[in-house]
Write a structure and sequence with these properties.
Blueprint lengths: L10 H6 L5 E6 L2 E6 L7 H21 L4 H17 L12
Antiparallel strand pairs: 1-2
Helix pairs in contact: 2-3
Length: 96
């Protein structure tokens, strides 16, 4: 039987409630995503993605020898490369 190693719900969301807008999992080396549109303007996703990148850089700085700035620079470089030439554009379907 397969297992799924899920993250914990953020403590603030448990305390105050909220709406999950993004869940991402790596399965056999590939990215699988569940998300809801969540915002009236797609521009808000730009802010969300930037915030997630900063959080990821902080985790790398805490858990590796990279600085937060160096990690963020590497994240941004790969983001730009993927936006310009996707290695896997994937598919998306709405399921509710």
């Amino acid at each position: 039987m397969a297992t799924f190693d899920a993250l914990h719900i953020p403590p603030t969301a448990l305390e105050h409630g909220g709406v999950e807008v993004l869940r991402a999992a790596i399965v056999e080396g590939g990215l699988h995503v569940s998300l809801r549109r969540a915002f009236d303007d797609p521009q808000a996703w730009g802010m969300l993605i930037a915030d997630v990148a900063r959080h990821a850089a902080r985790i790398f700085a805490k858990e590796t020898k990279l600085t937060e700035d160096a990690a963020l620079e590497r994240i941004r470089a790969m983001f730009d490369a993927e936006m310009d030439a996707p290695t896997d554009p994937g598919t998306t379907s709405a399921i509710s």
